[in-house]
């Protein structure tokens, strides 16, 4: 009787250990699946993440250029752009993107897309947030994508091709919205819109305009 009871106890212990192992394995699988589901998205996986990565890359390039060729205002410009970089990283985290991933503004065609020439502005009857008929001008920066600089303030733009005071009209061909803004600072792209200007032409949830027409109107 004593031996039977001992064997019975051992069997019970073995069964309990086996059950715990299975349960632990199941918990591990569930935890792994949960972690995988919450893995941050890269720029290649999300248009939102791509737009933020491009904006981050543009600002980082601007900072690098200012450090390589400093002038009397470089320190102030760098401090301003570092604050912008921090804000973009916060947006990356909030949007479920890889924090710190950056990409320089590129004219390369996205995978699965064929190269398309920029369409003339008159082919897109765009709404003008300022009211009245939208002025037409010289089309520039053909094929450029447009994203945001992350800077606050009234609607404005920054550019590496046009001096301060230049007026640019940006049309988003995906929703036929446009805005005309003045260049107020230097950036690493043909045109970067600040937050207020980008809001006027963006599609909900997107931080990149792939099909844009940019015109110099003043």
From TrEMBL:
Region annotation (Disordered) ranges: 96-138
Coiled-coil ranges from the UniProt annotation: none
Signal peptide: 1-36
Protein name: Putative 23.9 kDa protein in glnII region
Keywords: Signal
Species of origin: Streptomyces afghaniensis 772
Compositionally biased residues, Low complexity: 106-128
